[in-house]
Amino acid sequence: MNQEYGFTREVLGALEVESVRAHLRSLGWVFDGAYGLADVFCFPEEKQAEVLLPQRQDLSDFASRMFDLIQTLAVIHEKPPWDVLHELQSPDGDRLRYRAIAGSVRSGVIPLTNGLDLFTQAIKSMRAAACSVVQPRAVFMQMGFTQVDEFIKSCVLGQTEAASYAINIISPMTRVNKETTMPLFVEDHDEELFRLEPFPRKVSISLMKGLSMVNKGILGRSIDMIADSVNEGVSANLCEALTEMRPFGEQSSLDIEVSWSAARPVLPGAPPRKVSFRHQDFELIRRAGEKLRGDSVVRNAKIEGYILGLSSEFNFTEGERGTIKISRTDEQGAGLVKAKLGEADYARACDAHKNNQRVAITGKLFKDASMKNAELREYLRFEVFPDEKA
Length: 390
Description:
The protein is an alpha+beta fold. The chain folds into three domains: 9-89, Metal Transport, Frataxin, Chain A (2-Layer Sandwich), CATH 3.30.920; 93-294, no CATH class; 295-389, CATH 2.40.50. It contains twelve helices and 13 strands. The chain has helices at 9-13, 17-26, 62-76, 81-89, 112-134, 146-154, 191-195, 199-219, 223-227, 236-244, 282-293, 343-354, and strands at 30-35, 38-43, 46-54, 93-101, 156-157, 165-172, 253-259, 274-278, 297-315, 319-330, 333-341, 359-367, 373-384. The strands form three sheets. It has a five-stranded antiparallel β-sheet, with helices on one face. It has a five-stranded mixed beta barrel with strand order 9-10-11-13-12. The chain starts with 8 loop residues before the first helix and ends in a 6-residue tail after the last strand.
């Protein structure tokens, strides 16, 4: 028994029989009778594939049989054994796995800033998918729905994996009661069943469906195909999050995969479990995101006005930085604009706010239809006017 990746008798002996049984069923394994004190499961897609699941944890060979079961699942489903173990150990929930694949990542390391970007944008992609569940839109200016905020707070981080760089995010799932007669794989498509699904499962479906539509657009080299898939979970926000997750290196790629929780049935017509994007795909994704935003994006926009609000945050790679809110009073109209500044410019902004000085910032402006709320990103220049111009 290999203990290098946590395969100890203590760890394997702690696995719950019913959770493993439900996980097997969620992967498509079928009960095929009993053999002594074990249940036999076969995999219809592989005629010779079968596993033995001990019926009780107190059996003397329980840990050994679980080790064999994990090895078989790893081979059949083409996953590292430790990944299978982590799935069996996870709390009830859909596991979303974001994996960067590049030369340096194969050894399990990644540049610090790249790792932070992957983590931040993974959350943003899930938030975008959750917003699409609430109300499909081409663009979400704030992504601040209460239900979405609560969902994000409920998610937890899963264990990392050896020999790769991956982020595992688990969205808790309500388990179907034992009394429920609903089969694990529903045979008849029914929109009503989807409507009754818990919000976390809807988010997983929305995310993977949106990603699969983006992938189809890439295969067809069609920006329009991506932009026309708003009702399938695609949004400018999702495309932008993907673009920011672009791994370094021409031979790199990004894998996003879901492991459906065994706590809920998997509806028919579910989107693919795994979607992959190559390094060269991200430019088309970026352009699709801009098309979805349409005329809500203004390049090299210059915003002038007075600072109404300040909010600082500390990033250990960039030091203290912060967000400012400007009440714009330029020729393009009135409204509130939010922008993030680096450490030096944020310090200048604090002084300008204290001294009631007029400021200007130039960059890419993302606005809503009313222009009353907007966000300026990728700023190029921040100016503070002297008192005499105020």
